[in-house]
Design a protein that fits this description.
The chain is mostly loops and 90 residues long. Helix content is 9%, strand content 0%.
Length: 90
């Protein structure tokens, strides 16, 4: 018997309440193709890079830096803000 209709018999199904139509692995658990911890059917960002921290919808968290300034008429960060960026990058 396969109560949730995922193609894995109940005795071997480790995830017995898989949503109808979801793709599952051999144990009956829904796939997480990008490995971010959010199953494919709930993943709004299905190609998240490996190791990224994601929210409940599988999207990478955004970091907003306030008051980090660039040199005048330049694409270079002012030297006083380099330590802040190094900290965030780490």
């Amino acid at each position: 018997m396969d109560s949730d209709g995922d193609g894995v018999v109940d005795g071997s199904d480790k995830c017995p309440d898989t949503p109808q139509g979801a793709k599952v692995d051999a144990m009956g658990c829904e796939l997480d193709s990008d490995g971010d911890g959010v199953v494919d059917s709930k993943d709004a960002c299905p190609n998240t890079p490996a190791g990224a921290t994601v929210n409940a919808t599988g999207c990478a968290e955004q970091i907003v830096l306030q008051d980090v300034r660039f040199e005048l008429n330049s694409d270079r960060i002012s030297s006083e803000y380099v330590a802040t960026l190094d900290h965030v990058a780490a």
